[in-house]
User: What shape does this take?
Amino acid sequence: MEVEGWAERAARILEDSLRGIERVGIVLPPTPDGIASSVILSELCSQMSIDSEFLVSLPETSLDAVESMVSKCDYLIFLELPPHGYGPISVARDLYKGLMVIDHGSTEIPTSWSVSRVRYPLGGVSTSLMLYLISCYLSKENDYLSWIALSGFRSKCSSELCDDVKRRSQLYWPDLMEENAIGLIQRALSAACFEGEEWIMIAISSLQDSIDDPWWFVKGSSATSSILRSKLPEFERRMRELLAEPFMVEGGTGLWEVNEPYQRFVVSIEARMMTRVAVSFFYDPPLGLVYVLAPQSIDLYAEASHLLRNEPEWSAFGGMGFLSMIISSNAMLNVLIRLKDRLNSMIGRD
Assistant: This one.
C-alpha cells in the first residue's frame, strides 16, 4: 500500500467528516496505543478548532460508551478496537452527527453516509502510527508528534513504516532517542493501562502536558508525569510475578489469566516480549474475554472466525497479529486450546 496516497485519503476523510463538528468524543481502549493515538487525535482536533473528550472503554462496554457520551459530544471516534458486532455502531449512528472508526484490523464493520472508517489493514502497524502519518500529511510541522506515536508502539509496531518513524523521531528528538527515554515512556503507559481508567487519564494528561517537550514527561517535571512514573517499580514487580505464573505455556504460545478485564490487553502486550503468541483472558460468566497478540504475518481474525464458526454466540475484532474476542465462558477454554494448537502449528512452520 502506497503510504503517501493512503495518508492523503485518510486525512481527507478525517477533515471532511469533522467539518462543522464542535466536540468529538474519543473512545479508546486501555492500551498504550490507545493512549498515544488519542493524544495525537486530540491535537489534530485542536488544530481544527474542535474540542475533544476522552473515554476509556472495553469492547464489552462499548454500548455504554456510546450512550454516555451523547450529552457531551456531537461526533464519536473509536480508536484501535471498535465495538465488536453491529449493535453499538447502529445505536451510535442514530445518536450522533457521525461516527468514525480508526483502526488497522481486517474485520469488516458496517459503514454508511454517517459511519466512516480509516484503516491500514497491514501487519506490524499501530493506530498511533496511522494518526502520526495523517498528522504529517496535514502539516509538516506536526513532526514533533513523532515521540507520542512511538510511545504507542510497544509490542505492536514492527513494520518498516515504524522504523521510518523512529528515524524521523531521532532527527527531531535526538537526545530522547539516544538515552532510550522512549522505552521509559512506553513502560509508563503500560503501567497506566494495568492500573485502569483513572491512571490512563493521568497518562493522557501527562502526554498532553509534555507534548512540546517530552523531557517534561521523562524527568517527571509535571505533576501528572511524576505521579505516573512513581507507579513504574510496582507495576514492573507485579507484571513479573503475573508473567511468571502462566495458565499454560506450550510451544511458542503462552496463556495468562488476568484479575481485571481491562488488564488483558496490556498483559498480552508485555507477555509478547517473551513468547511468540501471547493470550490473556478474563473469566466473567457468562462471558469469556480474550486478547491475543501474535506475529504480524498471521491474520488472527481469520483464524478465529474459522475456529468459532460453530459457536452459537461470539463476537470478535482483529487483524494481522492481534485479536479481541468475546465468547461464552463455557466455551472459552476449549476455544483457547484449539487456537493455541492452531497457532503453534503455524509459527512452527515459520
In short: The chain has a mean pLDDT of 93.
